[in-house]
Amino acid sequence: MYEISEHYTFVATHEILGLQSTHPCHGVHMHQWSVEVVLFAASLLPTDGPAETAALEPLRRYVTTELEARHLNDVLVGDPTPARLAGHLVRWCRSHLGGYVTETLHSVAVSAGRASRARCLAIRGRDGVR
Hints:
Layout: E1 2-14, E2 29-41, H1 51-54, H2 57-67, H3 82-96, H4 99-104, E3 105-112, E4 117-121
Antiparallel strand pairs: 1-2, 2-3, 3-4
């Protein structure tokens, strides 16, 4: 079994509505976000190149063009927390990436700085993501 992971970072703002004014995440603020995508594969693609990571290239482009330097409240439905963003990216992968990624996708983890991180497990055969 192989575990293949890719990491992406981007900077974006967000606001979590309803937080007390004393909370450190109150109001519009910026984070350096980190995304980790993990594939679990029983076998590798038959090639001499970096095929497994190349299969994730559309996700990297999505992160750099649609999330980088954006206000995440304009991108996601609901408060843009690490957990909601991880679920959004699992759904995006399922909708936009090929069979190899959708068959081997294990999880997407998102962190907003060092203090908080969420992982969405991509359970095959079920939509474990809301």
